[in-house]
Amino acid sequence: MRVGKVRFAGILRDVCLECVPDAVPGDYVLVHVGFAIARLDAEEAARTYALLEELGQTEELVAGDDVVAPSGASR
């Protein structure tokens, strides 16, 4: 299984990349329940992140117990 490290809201997580086989380091991906389900360009990724922040959906990540310190991984 193809897995990559994805950083979101300062949190680094392992994510399954099987649904987006063309994803490469530095790409933006849309993740749902641990699976990358689509690639996004930088503009769409910024709009999506801003919307999630506006809806308060990034705050719950910071409060989670499974936070991993970032270590220079790609977006």
TrEMBL record:
Coiled-coil intervals, chain numbering: none
InterPro entries in alphabetical order: Hydrogenase_HupF/HypC
Bilayer-spanning residue ranges: none
Gene3D superfamilies to which the protein is assigned, alphabetical: 2.30.30.140
GO terms under biological process: protein maturation
GO MF terms held by the record: carbon dioxide binding; iron ion binding
Source taxon at top rank: Bacteria
NCBIfam families attached to this UniProt entry: hypC_hupF (TIGR00074)
Family: Belongs to the HupF/HypC family.
PANTHER family attached to this UniProt entry: HYDROGENASE MATURATION FACTOR HYBG
Designated name of the protein: [NiFe] hydrogenase metallocenter assembly protein HypC
Organism: Labilithrix luteola
